[in-house]
Amino acid sequence: MQSFKSIVLLLCIALSHTIFAQGIEFQHDPWAETLAKAEKSGKLIFLDAYASWCGPCKMLTRNTFTDATVGKYFNKNFIAAKIDMELGEGPELAQKYGVQAYPTLLFINGKGELVHRGVGYMTPEQLLELGKAAANPETQMGAMIKRYEAGTLNPELVLSLINTLEAAGDDRAATVANEYLKKQTDFSKAENIELALRFGNDPKASYFKQLMKEYNALLKELGEEMLFAKIQDIYVRYHVNNEGLAMADMDKLIRATYTSGDVNFFIAKFHVSWAAQNNDTDGFLNAVTELMQKFPSSSADELNSFAWAFHEISDDPKHLKNALKWAKKSVELQEQYANTDTVAVLFGELGDKKEAKKYAQRAIELAKISGDDASSTEAFLESLK
Asked: Is residue 151 within 8 Å of 176, Cβ to Cβ?
């Protein structure tokens, strides 16, 4: 008859096994041995390509890899490996498999060929979905690419491939999407319109003409701000792909192709966005000033955003006075902590301590109501004494 101590010990061992078997069981063998195991077993390797300083990587380890359902599926179907891409064999593997962001989740066969991938933090449900896609030859990224390159161009495959590439952070998503779009003739299809808005890079293409025809319908569906941004991105991508194209030529192109809405307003906004994306400080200051002169904004958030940006990048009184005017209009439209604080700061920069104090005090009052953190405003107010 077993002693009480031996029974307790057996229970502890069983409990310990249950606890540690719940999540994914990662192996820590040299990469060559991991490949050999995969080749012998016929399983794919699931490689967590991480970096020690990566916050999402730690969250993935803590919240997702420990999930019992995830562990059960991955332990059954894959050989799991976990490698720091900045240590040991990591840098070589990172280069080989194009790891540029962390975490990157790779599915690799025993020959060392990449068959599927995902990027970023995932919930247990999302990781399971990724794992099932990797395990299915029909939905593996590598298999879909081979079928696509062999000439299989049915919409179901292409759309699935584009979505898979995009989810994996693979730049080929845009290339495949544009190759597909150029071969389409029916742009009344919702999926073609969606692809054009997501990946389009040629405002001279037939799909862009269709976007202009569908402009009012898209406006109702997406709203002005979202639609404007998506169409603007098409021009930005075109400009990036035609490096060196002068802005005057871009303006001509926009005038020739942007056939819906106010083209002058669109061009003015495009100049602002382009300057911001290219860190052109002087260009941004001038473009915003011109935009606000020709097309005064009635958006409290946009006015405050521009005013604060001017505060951060310029000490020229001319620009600061414009910024103050926009910030005050923002407060008139919708008084909030943020825009009232902007007014206070701008008055301070322009040397008007009395007005700066008044608006700073009001901003702190509004913060108490809204629950905003006003510590920076309180410090600013203290500095005015």
From this structure: no
Q: What Å distances lie between residue 267 and 248, 249, 251, 306, CA to CA?
A: 11, 12, 7, 17
CATH architecture of 20-144: 3-Layer(aba) Sandwich (3.40)
Is the previous residue joined to 137 through a cis bond, with omega within 30 degrees of 0?
no
The per-residue pLDDT for 171 is 83
Structure tokens at 206: 């037939």
* Structure-token match 């103050």, residue found: 324
Instruction: Using alpha carbons, select from 345, 343, 339, 281 the residue that is nearest to residue 313.
Output: 281
Question: What does the pLDDT look like over 184-197, one tens digit per residue?
Answer: 877 777 888 888 89
Q: What are the boundaries of each domain within the chain?
A: 20-144, 213-383
pLDDT, tens only, 4-48: 454 444 444 444 444 444 899 999 999 999 999 999 999 999 999
Q: For 275-283, what is the mean pLDDT?
A: 91
Model's pTM, two decimal places?
A: 0.67
Q: What is the CATH number of domain 213-383?
A: 1.25.40.10
**Exposed / middle / buried, residue 349 (Cβ in 10 Å: 0-12, 13-18, 19+):** middle
297 close to 290: Cβ distance less than 8 angstroms: no
Q: Which residues form the catalytic set?
A: 54, 57
